[in-house]
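1st attempt posting a full record on here, be nice pls
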Amino acid sequence: MFWNLVANEIISEEWQPNVHLPAFADDFVFVISEPTGAKLKATAQAALTKFQHWTDKHQLKVSTEKSTTILISRLVSGPRVKWDNQIIKRSTSLKYLGVKIDNKLNWADHLITMKTKLTYLHQNSQE
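the predicted structure (as tokens):
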């Protein structure tokens, strides 16, 4: 119950119209849309700075090792964003709530992962 009160503070924060912060339990994801790389970097960095003020206020720790950015765009190279002066690694796919999302939104990574898991489960149930 206490976590819900703390998390609700940042979720209900006023964000720019092109910044969305869905969350489930302690998993947060920023979804940001901008027309240019420069605007994307500025908006993303501002959102992370605001989020960091909230984490600092409540003495919460963000794992930069587990944090990832993914660029779903025609931009060749997306902006680098930082958390506490540490660049957040970029990937072509990420896993959020058990779903693998790739930068082309074609679900290939997720389907391959699910096929591998199902094959393993099926083979082990035969024993």
